[in-house]
Amino acid sequence: MLRQPELFVLFKWVGGAYLGYLGIMMWRSRGRMAIPSELDAGPPASRLQLAMQGFVTAVANPKGWAFFMVLLPPFLDGNRPLPGQLSLLIAVILTIEFASMLVYATGGKTLRNALGKSGNVRLLNRIAGTLMIGVGLWLAFG
C-alpha cells in the first residue's frame, strides 16, 4: 500500500461507498426481526436455562481454556500447593462466567422483547444505517 498510494485511495473510496450503500439499505429496510417472534421448537426457555446453555458452551470452548492457561500462571505461587490455588481461581472464574452468562441471557431476552414492539427494529436500523453512512463518508473523505 505504501508503494501504491493510488490503490489505497481506491480502497478508501470503494470501502466508503460500500458502507454508504449498506447504510442506505438499512434505512430502506422494513424493520422486521430476522427471527420470528414465535418459535415452533416448543415452550420458551427460561432465563436460567438460557444462562446454563451459555455457561456450558463457554466452559466447553477450548479457546477460553487456552486463554486462561496463559492468564493464570502469574497468579500462582510455586511455593504453595497448586491444587488449592487452581481450585480457588477456577471457582472465581466459573462464578464470573456464570454471572456474565446470566446477564447476557437476560439482556438478550429483554432486548428481543423490546425489539419485538412495532417500530423499534426500524429505529435501530435507521440509527445503525446513519452511523454506517457517517463512517463511510469519513472513510472516503477523511
UniProtKB/TrEMBL annotation:
Protein name per UniProt: LysE family translocator
Lineage: Bacteria, Pseudomonadati, Pseudomonadota, Gammaproteobacteria, Oceanospirillales
GO cellular component annotations of the record: plasma membrane
Segments crossing the lipid bilayer: 6-27, 84-103, 123-141
InterPro entries: LeuE-type (IPR001123)
Keywords noted in UniProt: Cell membrane, Membrane, Transmembrane, Transmembrane helix
Listed Pfam families: LysE (PF01810)
GO MF term list: homoserine transmembrane transporter activity
Coiled-coil segments on the chain, per record: none
Domain of life: Bacteria
Localization, UniProt: Cell membrane
Taxonomic source organism: Vreelandella sulfidaeris
Topological relation to the membrane, as annotated: Multi-pass membrane protein
